[in-house]
Structures are given as structure tokens and as C-alpha cells.
Sequence to fold (230 residues):
Amino acid sequence: MGSVEHKFKVLAFGMIAEKLKTSELELEGIPSTEVLKGYLFQQYPEIKDTKFSISVNRKQVKGDSPIPNEAEVALLPPFSGG
Amino acid sequence: MEKQRKPKNIFVEGPISPEKIAQSIANHSSKTDIGGHSIFLGQVRADEKEGGKVRAIAYSAYEEMALEKAFEIREEIFAKYPLTCMHIYHSLGEVKVGEICLFVFTSSKHRKAAIESCEELVERIKKELPVWGQELVDNEKAVWKENQ
Fold:
């Protein structure tokens, strides 16, 4: 209590979900997508050599992007629909 | 009257049946300003993989984002081409080889708009929608697909 909480949800899809062994994580106190990547690579080294992009609130982001409070972040491996 | 367009669900559980496609064509007979339709059908191919042949593809999607993106693409294509109608259906879940997993259908007064917009739609769907196909191989192995 006291400090401002910064929580967000991370959704994982395809090969990333398989490697994380979950399709959803709840994280807090991570301010940006680059910091998030660093955290994920440390916690789940098996995704280091997997290609993926990141979306914040359903919009794909390029480079380092802030993660707002209560955001819905997603880890998106290369698309293969159709 | 200007038609209001809202995000539509494009996802179908399992394969898209030939009957659904036929019905969709039939539904346009009352729209007598249409002079041409263009249809693309994606079919699951029995590729040779390490350890066997593909027997099916299991599709999954980030549905909310895919529907938002599909709506955005739809609006852009409608703005770019003089189309009367546009329909997009994509499978989720398992689709066996030989079955249809993508149905894109455009209609216009004259053929060119329908043909060109259909091609552009298919390319954008494959490139921009957060959908993933996992190829299921004979021997119970699974390989994540990657679009070329």
C-alpha cells in the first residue's frame, strides 16, 4: 500500500505461448517494452531466439514503447494465417 | 443513404464449408448493381515435413486485435476501390488438408475493382492479422507455420 501500483497483462500466442508454458502473465512495475523484453529473456531464456513483435493495447509497437497501467500487452510471433 | 459499417466477426470454428460459400454467392443475387465477383479460397495443403505429411492446420488468433485490424483493412479497401460488397472469413481451430480455411469475397459494378481488391485483401490478411497456424503432421508432431 502507499506506492502507485502499475499492473498489466501479457498475452502470449503461438510458439511463444508454447515456450512460456502459459498464454497469460500478470506483471507489475515494468515501465516499457524494452524492459519487459529484458525481464522475459531473463525469466524465460528459451524465447531468446524466437522471433516476436509486441503489441500494447492491441496496437503493434516498434522500438521501445511505454506500458501504461492496466495495459494489455501481447507477444506476437510471426503471423501465419490464411 | 450512407451505410454504417461496424466491426464484424470474421472467424469461423473449423473449416469453411462449400455450402457456406455457395450460400454466400446466392445471397448476392438480389444486389443487381453488381457486375462482377472475385473470390479467393485458401485450402490446407499436405506439405511434406520432417517426419511426415501435414494432415491439418490448427489455427489460433489474438481475436480482439485481429477483428480490429480486419475492420481497419476493410475500411481502407472500401475507401480505395468502388466496391459493393466485401466478405472475409477465416477458420479457427483444426482444418484438415483439402478443406477451406480462408474465404475472401469482393463484389463490384465492374470486374477490376473486385479482382484487385480481393488480391490486396488476401495479401494484407496474411501479413497483418494476428493469426497463427500450427501444422499437424502425421506422427503427432506439430510445426508452427510461417507465412512467406
Q: What stands out?
A: Residues 33-43 of chain A form the longest helix (11 residues). Chain A has one domain: 7-76. The domain at 7-76 of chain A is CATH 3.10.20.30 (Ubiquitin-like (UB roll)).
